[in-house]
């Protein structure tokens, strides 16, 4: 048997490149997520927003057989964003009463219904909390860091949303949707673009 180390370096590099190419062709799949059980999806989340565009890309990458529709009536399921809120609060102060640390809270609530209003996933609240040191001598830099942190928190919620929608519970609910509770179809108007991730101003 010929060992891998005896293979010429240029051939080893070529084999490694080929392996990466094969992996790339398989597409990215989020760890812990499986393809969604439905073929079409409508959401009132603005897909032209940064959050909505990333949601679309993530779902398309992990579930290529699922497409987004422009009308709720044409979709198998409705991903309904109920509410989103973010909050910034002072976590600790120094001896002079200046803020040393902030706590960032992001809350996202959603539900998943089929086209006739059967509940596949009841109202579910996802919460993300981060702590961030603060320095009042570099306010502008810290405001930018808060913006970026809220953005990262929002992006991390997308992974959680996908995992919930691809869970065994949702798959079972979709397969037996006729036995699920029925609720009135909520407003399907597309929401306005998500406001800037961070607060408009912070006080030291």
Please describe what this structure looks like:
Helices cover 32% and strands 26% of the residues. With 204 residues, the protein is α/β, with parallel strands linked by helices. The chain has a single domain, classed as Lipoprotein like domain (Double Stranded RNA Binding Domain, 2-Layer Sandwich), CATH 3.30.160.150. Strand 4 and strand 5 form a beta hairpin. The longest helix has 27 residues. The chain is elongated and about 60 Å long. The chain starts with 8 loop residues before the first helix and ends in a 29-residue tail after the last helix.
Layout of helices and strands:
Blueprint: H1 9-26, E1 40-43, H2 50-62, E2 67-68, E3 77-93, E4 99-114, E5 119-133, H3 139-165, H4 168-175
Provide tags for this entry.
204 residues; alpha/beta; 5-stranded mixed beta sheet; 4 helices; 26% strand; disordered C terminus; membrane
Give me a quick take on this structure.
This protein has helices at 9-26, 50-62, 139-165, 168-175; strands at 40-43, 67-68, 77-93, 99-114, 119-133. With 204 residues, it is α/β, with parallel strands linked by helices.
Spatial gap, N to C terminus: 68 Å
Largest sheet: 5 strands, mixed
The side-by-side strand order for the widest beta sheet comes to 2-1-3-4-5
Order of helices and strands: HEHEEEEHH
Proportion of strand residues: 25-35%
Number of strands: 5
Number of domains: 1
Form type: elongated
Mean pLDDT: 81
Gross CATH architecture:
2-Layer Sandwich
Number of helices: 4
Unreliable stretches, pLDDT < 50, 5 or more residues?
Answer: 19-29, 196-204
* Structural class determined from secondary elements: alpha/beta
Q: Give the fraction of residues assigned to helices.
A: 25-40%
Instruction: Just give the CATH class.
Output: Alpha Beta
The CATH homologous superfamily is termed: Lipoprotein like domain
Using only C-alpha atoms, the radius of gyration works out to 22 Å
CATH topology: Double Stranded RNA Binding Domain
């Amino acid at each position: 048997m010929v060992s891998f180390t005896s293979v010429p370096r240029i051939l080893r590099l070529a084999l490694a490149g080929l392996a990466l190419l094969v992996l790339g062709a398989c597409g990215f799949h989020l760890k812990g997520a499986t393809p969604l059980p439905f073929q079409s999806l409508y959401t009132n989340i603005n897909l032209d927003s940064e959050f909505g565009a990333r949601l679309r890309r993530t779902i398309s990458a992990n579930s290529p057989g699922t497409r987004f529709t422009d009308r709720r009536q044409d979709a198998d399921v409705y991903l309904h964003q109920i509410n989103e809120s973010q909050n910034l609060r002072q976590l600790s102060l120094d001896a002079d009463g200046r803020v040393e640390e902030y706590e960032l809270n992001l809350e996202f609530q959603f539900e998943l219904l089929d086209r006739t209003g059967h509940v596949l996933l009841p109202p579910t609240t996802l919460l993300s909390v981060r702590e961030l040191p603060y320095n009042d001598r570099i306010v502008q830099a810290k405001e930018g860091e808060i913006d970026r942190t809220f953005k990262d928190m929002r992006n991390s919620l997308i992974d959680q949303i996908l995992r919930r929608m691809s869970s065994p519970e949702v798959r079972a609910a979709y397969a037996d949707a006729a036995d699920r509770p029925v609720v009135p179809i909520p407003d399907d108007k597309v929401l306005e673009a998500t406001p800037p991730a961070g607060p408009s101003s912070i006080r030291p």
